[in-house]
Write the structure tokens for this entry.
Amino acid sequence: MNKGKITLIALGVIVVVLIVVFFMLVPTKTEAPTNDAVNTATTTEQIREIVLNEDGVPSIEGGVVEIIDETEVSSAQPSLDRPITIPDTFPQEAAQLMATKIADAIAAVEQDPTLYGNWLTLGNLRGQIQDHEGAEEVYVYLTETSPDNAVGYTNLGNTYHYHLPDYPKAEANYLAAIERSPGNENAYSELHTLYKNVYKTDTTAAVDILLRGLEQKPQSINFRLQLAKYYEDTGDVENQLRYLEEALDEANRTNNTTLAESLTAEIEALK
């Protein structure tokens, strides 16, 4: 082989090597990242950059962020298999009657678990046999599934007031009942009793809640009698007489002669 051919072969090899090296060094076109990858990176960056603007609204780079709570709130249905335990203090006949009533209430719920009244009956019966934890479960369920109905809140307030003492919870549920039904005298009265006897007793809350009730039910005799009793217990005869006389006026206006006679005698004894 002569020198000319060798030189040509060598040059060819060098050219090939140079071409290979060129393509190795030049970046090749890559696939665009998937939407998932883009979204993940963007989400991570947004979470890092969230701040509160002057109005307290979360924002990113001057824009407002819509915060979506994706947490699912589920209301667990109370178990219908809860044992029916009648206290020993119940006479045998009464115990059998209550057991039958509760069994019937459970059957009614099973037949139509969407009816508020079916659950309410079951909860009330549970309370009557002193199964207050069982009643609590039902009332909590009712407040979660029918949040606009005041009855569940009032009953739950009574449960925490009298049977499973938790006075802040009792107060919160009575107030929730009043918010949903401003004319609900029972909730005002029970909350007054709570404040007067066991909770916030060193404040004016007991009087304030009755006055709030009177604003909603200005013709209420019950509120006036409770106010008169409160002032009697505190030794304030002047205000005691004031609310007794107002109650008497309402009794006369509604032709409640029996109550009017009783109030008249009480008023005269104080004068």
About this structure: The chain is about 65% helix and 5% strand.
